[in-house]
Amino acid sequence: MLTSGVRYSGTEHLWDRVVSVATANSFKPHRDTYRTAADLIRLAPEEVLFVANHAFDCVGAKAAGMRTAFVDRRQRPFGNTLYEPDLIVDDFAHLAKTVTSALGRA
Questions:
Q1: pTM for this structure?
Q2: Residue 79 CB burial class (10 angstroms; 0-12, 13-18, ≥19)
Q3: pLDDT tens-digit map of 5-20
Q4: Nearest to 59 by CA among 88, 26, 30, 92
Q5: Radius of gyration of the chain (CA)
Q6: What is the spatial distance between Cα 20 and Cα 24, in angstroms, rounded to a whole number?
């Protein structure tokens, strides 16, 4: 399903790999799903900035030890104080500006 969806979107050339929850043998937001993805790209979870516009995805990634960025396009409260995101941004342009600035490339 994911491979077909990516192909249909016309963005297939932008991705090195598409990872499914089937690979992790667990469903999101279980932390093993996110840890498996980090393992597949040979990064420690703490080396990953996981970006999502769904709070449950940020919660799962944070529970796996990743840094997270929540794209709050709907201007709603995040709703989880235990696994709060490291960044909250309005959109992807805001995310790019924030990350670029943090890296000293403003």
A1: 0.83
A2: exposed
A3: 888 999 989 988 888 8
A4: 30
A5: 14
A6: 7
